[in-house]
Design goal:
The complex is a heterodimer of chains A (about 200) and B (about 575).
Chain A (H helix, E strand, L loop, with lengths): L1 E11 L5 H10 L12 E10 L2 E10 L9 H5 L4 E7 L3 H17 L5 E7 L11 H10 L3 E4 L8 H11 L14 E2 L14
Parallel strand pairs in A: 1-3, 1-4, 4-5, 5-6
Antiparallel strand pairs in A: 1-7, 2-3
Chain B lengths: L2 H22 L3 H4 L4 E8 L3 E8 L7 H10 L10 E10 L14 H5 L10 E12 L7 E10 L4 H18 L1 H11 L10 E6 L2 E6 L11 H7 L7 E2 L8 H5 L6 H9 L4 E4 L3 H13 L9 E3 L9 H5 L8 E5 L4 H4 L5 E4 L5 E2 L2 E2 L4 E2 L12 E4 L9 H12 L4 H29 L21 H11 L11 H9 L2 H28 L2 H5 L4 H20 L8 H14 L3 H9 L1
Parallel strand pairs in B: 7-8, 9-11, 9-12, 10-11, 15-16
Antiparallel strand pairs in B: 1-2, 1-5, 3-4, 4-5, 6-7, 12-16, 13-14
Helix pairs in contact in B: 5-6, 13-14, 17-20, 19-20
The chains are: A alpha/beta (about 200), B alpha/beta (about 575).
InterPro entries (chain B): ABL9/DENND6_dom, DENND6, Tripartite_DENN
Protein name (chain B): Protein DENND6B isoform X1
GO molecular function, one term (chain B): guanyl-nucleotide exchange factor activity
């Protein structure tokens, strides 16, 4: 089986739940009192997609304004970006649009963009309609899902859809993101942080 | 209960416990790599000043801060326009609260002696930027980003600086905050492990060498095969320098410099820049690996150094240190030193780097000293001409610098090993026979080291067995015995042997019939046994003695049985201890 490493970054306003999404995906856990991320944190998880193993190298960036200028280091070379907003905060959807603009201007040319409307368990307090968000996502050809890191809704799905959109490897090995033949290491499916 | 089983689960538990305390302390993981990160700037009124320290609560004494300030800037005489990287080493202030890494921690137990954590010094790894900037009063932007660490991982930290420093100069404090928090997520260095170190969107991959690595082997190559794509940033080494580049202007004198290092002679390197100065000093210090260079060394030393007076006093003989300097003022200061290596900008003669000449010390007096090795040192061994030929041919054939460095490193390793193997062999013969270790007596003593006895072994088992180099090996050994490097080597080996004896003793005690022995003994003798045994067990735990698995647990069990055979009042007293 071929193992491919895919660099993925999470972008979005502070407090929308970027770290919670990563934590749910990698650890299948949820902590309501998670600390704000400083700079970025790094985690990995390997999942099988068809006859390939996709190892996601996930850079979970800080949403706070003072770290904003650091973002290029994390989306540089990324295969995909998950931009997260909070469905109960209209402002966070506006921030998302700014991230899309920035990625268009400065991001890698073929980056896969996924939009995640998080906290869909709080639909009573909803400020962003699902339809508006979906229309916007379609207009920029982005993946769109509403997620709940708290209730584990659509978290794995985001990553599965990313896997689907990653260009298939050229059989001749000519593609830019070359795969690597894996020898007898099938047990590795889940690793946390470094090593 | 299966003793093996219990020991195993205990090990796992203690490992978990260690990890828990490690991650619960603020900055615990960060401080297993770095002490702090400093930003040093040039202030028109104050001169060099620390602009920022991260983490904010890190404790540096005023003296340490001053030293870091001066050592982080190139001397005014060296231009250094653009970006410059170099390293320094400074002495920690007296009375500084020791770090929480004891001498007996797992890292120091398993790391090679040359990669031990410093207990009394810090390394500083510097990235200095000096560019024209009209917005600044002085006309120049001058700033250094400095990583302060106890670890001699020069290649890793200089590579890290190449990633973070240019970003820092653009994005300032939030960038530093992010980097430090990312480093705080790194796994602590564990000898023998390959680690992935994520920082600023890239993952560096490094292997931490272990004491058990085969010298001269390259386990990194194997790691490369397992490498994944897109490739993380692979560092082939954490600490090795490009030896060939460092030594290229004195390749033909390598043998002499190796001797000077081995003997811990006072040496001054006068270099055209802090980069050349620090790389040359670090390369020289590493040239006697796997022996540890036990004297003080300063890759970059300035007149502002707190040890300046101590090291340049004329009332005593020069100290056993190697200093790298760039300020020509030092020529006068170090006139009385026995070995001064003056390096200039690298010059080529045809294809080959111009080699400096050995010169008489008397020639040093001129103001504008020419490049050369100013020394009266008489070489003990002959030069290895075939090595020099091979290297020079390599230059003509444009052999890559890494390959040239590998040849050099291999040569130096074999040379050091040829020198050290007879010593190791003799030392092993001082170990008491295994059968003299008995349960009812304190462990036998290691026989004292006799220089004459050792010299007697050289005829049959000397370096001639592994080295073709001719010369006065005996004279070299005699001088080596007077050097701090011998002292350091002997102390370390002696400690290891003492620990080995202690292990053997614990093992024979474990196999002895302790309970049977207590049958006809008085209470006093039994209590004495309990106390002694307990002390031994405590020491074994504290020093992390490499005892066979299960021995300590089994002894602990015996101890409890012996205690429970005593009258109840005594039992309570003993349990309370």
């Amino acid at each position: 089986m071929t193992l491919r490493e895919l660099k993925v970054c999470l972008l979005g306003d502070t407090g929308v739940g970027k770290s919670s999404i990563v934590w749910r995906f990698v650890e299948d856990n949820f902590d309501p009192n998670i600390n704000p991320t400083i700079g970025a944190s790094f985690m990995t998880k390997t999942v099988q997609y068809q006859n390939e193993l996709h190892k996601f190298l996930i850079w979970d960036t800080a949403g706070q304004e003072r770290f904003r200028a650091l973002a290029p280091m994390y989306y540089r070379g990324s295969a995909a970006a998950i931009i997260v907003y909070d469905i109960t905060k209209e402002d966070s959807f506006q921030t998302l649009k700014n991230w899309v603009k920035e990625l268009r201007q400065h991001g890698p040319p073929n980056i896969v963009v996924a939009i995640a409307g998080n906290k869909c368990d709080l639909s009573d307090a909803r400020e962003v309609s699902e339809k508006d968000a979906k229309d916007y996502a379609d207009s920029i050809h982005a993946i769109f899902v509403e997620t709940s890191a708290k209730n584990a809704i659509n978290i794995n799905e985001v990553f599965i859809e990313i896997s689907q959109r990653i260009p298939v490897l050229d059989a001749g090995g000519g593609a830019a993101g070359n795969g690597f033949k894996l020898r007898r290491r099938p047990s590795e499916t889940r690793t946390r942080t470094c090593c | 209960m299966d003793p093996l089983d219990s020991s195993e689960s205990r090990l796992v538990e203690s490992a978990n416990a260690a990890e828990n305390t490690e991650s619960s302390l603020p900055w615990a993981r960060f401080s297993s790599w770095l002490e702090c990160v400093c930003v040093v700037t040039f202030d028109l009124e104050l001169g060099q000043a620390i602009e920022l320290v991260y983490p904010h609560d890190v404790k540096l004494t005023e003296k340490e801060k001053t030293s870091i300030c001066y050592l982080s800037f190139p001397d005014s005489y060296s231009g250094c326009l653009g970006d410059t990287q170099f390293s320094f080493r400074l002495r920690q202030s007296v009375g500084r609260r020791g770090s929480w890494f004891g001498e007996e921690d797992a890292y120091s137990r398993d790391a090679p002696v040359t990669l031990q954590r410093e207990l009394a010094h810090f390394y500083g790894y510097v990235y200095f930027r000096q560019v024209k900037d009209a917005a600044v009063k002085r006309g120049y932007f001058q700033k250094s980003l400095v990583l302060v660490s106890r670890l001699p991982y020069v290649h890793l930290f200089q590579s890290l600086l190449q990633i973070i420093a240019p970003e820092y100069f653009e994005k300032l404090e939030p960038c530093l905050e992010a980097v430090c928090n990312e480093i705080d997520q790194w796994q602590s260095p564990v000898p023998g492990l390959t680690l992935n170190l994520p920082v600023m969107g890239v993952v560096m991959q490094v292997r931490i060498p272990s004491k058990n690595d085969k010298p001269g082997g390259s386990p990194e190559k194997q790691a490369q095969k397992e490498n994944l794509l897109p490739a993380p940033m692979m560092l082939p080494t954490i600490h090795e320098l490009d030896l060939f580049k460092c030594f290229q202007s004195f390749l033909i004198h390598l043998q002499m410099l190796w001797e000077l290092m081995l003997l811990g002679e006072p040496v001054v390197i006068m270099a055209p820049s802090p980069t050349v100065s620090s790389e040359t000093v670090l390369a020289l210090v590493s040239s006697i690996a796997p022996l540890r260079y036990c004297c003080d060394y300063r890759p970059y030393f300035t007149i502002h150094d707190t040890e300046f007076k101590e090291y340049t006093t004329r009332t005593q003989a020069p100290p056993n240190v190697i200093l790298g300097v760039t300020n020509p003022f030092f020529i006068k200061t170090f006139q009385s030193w026995p070995h001064i290596i003056r390096l200039g900008e690298l010059k080529m003669s045809g294809d080959l780097p111009k080699q400096v000449k050995v010169k008489k010390l008397a020639k040093l007096k001129t103001l504008d000293t020419k490049p050369g090795i100013y020394t009266a040192h008489k070489m003990f061994l002959q030069k290895d001409k075939s090595l020099i030929k091979r290297l020079l041919k390599g230059i003509q054939r444009k052999r890559p610098s890494e390959v040239q460095s590998a040849i050099l490193r291999r040569h130096l390793l074999e040379l050091t090993q040829s020198f050290i193997i007879p010593l190791e062999r003799y030392l092993a013969s001082l170990m008491p026979l295994q059968r003299s270790v008995t349960p009812w007596k304190t462990p036998p003593q290691i026989r004292p080291f006799s220089q004459e006895e050792f010299m007697g072994t050289l005829e049959h088992a000397g370096p001639q067995l592994t080295s073709v180099l001719k010369g006065d090996w005996v004279g070299l050994y005699r001088k080596f015995f007077r050097s701090p490097n011998f002292d350091g080597w002997y102390r370390l080996r002696h400690r290891e042997m003492t620990q080995k004896l202690e292990c053997l003793h614990l093992e024979v005690v474990c196999d002895a019939d302790l309970l049977g022995w207590t049958k006809d003994k008085s209470e006093v003798e039994i209590v004495d046994l309990v106390l002694k045994l307990r002390e031994k067990l405590m020491k074994a735990g504290k020093q992390q003695l490499p005892v066979k698995e299960g021995v300590l647990e089994k002894l602990e069990g015996y101890l409890q049985t012996v205690i429970s055979s005593l009258p109840e009042d005594l039992q309570t007293v003993l349990h309370r201890y």
